[in-house]
Amino acid sequence: MRDQSGIKMVNITTASQNRLHPQSKALTLPAHETKKMKWVLPMSFTVLALIVSTFVSAEENLYAKNYKAQNAYGLTSSQANPDTKMYVSNHKEDDNISMLETGYDMMGSSGFEGGDVAADLALQHGKAIKADVVLVYSKYGSAKSASSKMAMIREAAKTGKALTEKDMAEEPTVYKYYASYWAKLPTPTLGVHVIKLVPKADAFNEKAEISGLQLLAVIKDSPAAKAGLVRGDRLLKINNIAVDNPEDLTTNIRQLKGQKIDIRYLRADTEMTTQAQLN
After folding, report:
1. Distance between CA atoms of residues 70 and 184, nearest Å
2. Kind and range of the H or E element at 104?
């Protein structure tokens, strides 16, 4: 029979407990062999426990273990059972902007270093947290290459330094892994992602407040996009009311839902105005 771990289990009983077939012969062990058996059984179960422990650790999902939620509102897919898609890329910053512009928001991310880790584990975690899209990235981390070892040998020859066996040992290749998890947002009221710019302070000047909110991304086909706003613009006022933090913007837009609003913004140091019809 097999237990839930998939390891075959064998029932062990003594001759006195077994009901042998009439033609079978019970095996009688000498006293010293019986003593050996007392040691063999505990050792067998110890080995079994080690096998089970190794089996469990091999199944550990490092994407799940190193996941950090980014959205404070518990964002997940709007679908009960999303068909989670996974894409492997190497342009993280550009991908982030593209995802925001196409109406997604980041749920969280996973980052870690390790050996060969299957990208499918990121997809597995994405499905578990109900993400619509998972973006996976990996790049070479560190290991001694043949050229770096030759350089080390030449340097040792020049300086007279003795190289140890550890210096020359083959090192496993280490990769840096990162995955981001995204959920599709409902139809936006305005359709912008914003950040608050904070100036750097130096020894001579105090930090000066930067008014408004920088547009990190404008969702395609949203009221903001139709009003002509683009990434990099800085929102200054909505209906002549200053917006200096994301919370204020969210509150104002919710109250004006369905209305046409006046927007004052800054583009390339020039103040401009436009109007947007909110959803």
Report:
1. 15
2. strand 104-114
Burial (Cβ within 10 Å: 0-12, 13-18, ≥19) of residue 61: middle
What region does 120 belong to: left with phi over 0, alpha with psi -120 to 50, or beta? Answer: alpha
The stretches in the chain having pLDDT less than 50 are 1-29, 39, 41, 45-57
Q: Which helix (H) or strand (E) holds 44?
A: helix 31-58
Indicate yes or no: pTM above 0.70.
Answer: no
Tokens of 183: 């959920």
Residue 169: what residue type?
Answer: A
User: For 176-205, how does the pLDDT look when each residue is reduced to its tens digit (9 = 90+)?
Assistant: 999 999 999 999 999 999 999 887 766 566
* CA dist., res. 51 & res. 20, Å (int): 32
Check residue 8 and report its DSSP letter: B
Q: What is the pLDDT of residue 97?
A: 96
